[in-house]
Design a protein that fits this description.
This protein has about 160 residues and is of the alpha+beta class. Helices cover about 30% and strands about 35% of the residues.
Length: about 160
């Protein structure tokens, strides 16, 4: 497996990974699959400033990705980034998410424009919670029943790492 900066050629793989989670999982609260134009717009907000987008490549395709995105659309938040990590469901439990997170957190630590990394995790996503805690994120609180997906109210947990 190779970890590298995402390229436009990865867009379809990234879209497929994300849309699987939209339809089958609770890692995202999106309810409608994203289109190629929507995901292209998202793609081009990355790999500039302190918002890298990296992929794990295996079998000549992107099988996972991690990105640091703007936390909020206000200038005072510019040194805070939000971490997202997604892995193709067929490649899970192989340590790909861990490798992606380690790499993107190293990038954040080297970037003087980044001060803190936050993650918003669905409360039932125990694997992601455990991984974040193992890598040094601190639990900054739970907001109860803020999203509804698959007919269930879901909590979110806020995690933070100062870099």
């Amino acid at each position: 497996m190779k970890i590298r900066m995402a390229e436009e050629k990865d867009l379809i793989d990234l879209l497929d990974i994300y849309n699987y989670e939209v339809e089958h999982g609770t890692a995202t609260f999106d309810l409608t699959k994203k289109t190629i134009p929507e995901r292209r717009e998202w793609f081009f907000t990355h790999n500039k400033g302190n918002h890298p987008l990296i992929v794990a490549e295996e079998d000549k395709r992107a099988v996972g990705y991690a990105c640091l995105s703007p936390y909020r659309a206000k200038e005072a938040y510019s040194a805070t980034v939000e971490l997202s990590v997604y892995v193709d469901h067929r490649y899970r439990r192989r340590g790909i998410a861990r490798k992606l997170m380690i790499e993107i957190l190293d990038m954040a630590r080297r970037d003087p424009a980044t001060h803190t990394v936050v993650s918003v995790i669905t409360g039932e996503n125990e694997a992601s919670i455990r991984l974040h805690e193992e890598l040094g994120f601190l639990d900054r609180g739970t907001i109860r029943e803020v999203g509804v997906k698959f007919g269930r109210y879901l909590d979110i947990k806020n995690y933070q790492m100062m870099v």
